[in-house]
Amino acid sequence: MNLLQVIVELRHSKPLKLFTPYEDLYRLLTGKELPGGQPGGQALLPGFELTISEKRMRIVVDPRHTAIVLGDVPNKGYCVDNVMTVFRKISELVTLPLLSRLGVRSFWVEESRLNFNDLVTSYKTKIYQPIYIAEESIDVGASFVLASGEYRANISFGPVELPQLESLLVFKPPELPKVATFVDVDYFIEKEQEEITDRMLRDFVNSGLDYAIEQSNKMGNLLEEER
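Predicted structure:
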């Protein structure tokens, strides 16, 4: 399968110090803590995005998470090198808080020779038991949570047409299939306030992409169209 997009995300156990002045100002003006201060809370502080179009890269920074989106991923090494470069630059500007979650999400696609309706029918035959809800559906998809040692992976897949595929991508390649099988692999680990290190991040991104390559190939073989 072809790799279209990679997102590497660090979720923080507390807000980045970059946003501390906003929290302090809110506290001085209201005498209260800013809502969203606890994990899972809805933060009021805005984050920001930097889009570097020539590199097909987007960097997202907000109080609770830091992420990089890569829309140009010719190989795993290129992806890992760019992720490391960006997070090192961020670390030079601001100390990253302890981690609460580390994830790498990748989007994969395999062009179909079938039209969309026939591809949906193929999915019904290979994935689902012959029950009424599957037989009567006009579109299908599936999502599973897998374990790999201490790591977890949310894997979703299904048939897509071009407009839906385009809506999933931050950066659109010049050529995309009109009908395809789409696989989304979200590989992650939840941490108990652990410090991020260069080696941890590099090893994690490498292992996450290796896992995604393995799973996307398995899905491609499972859903392989008859020739």
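Summary: The CA atoms of residues 83 and 89 lie 10 Å apart.
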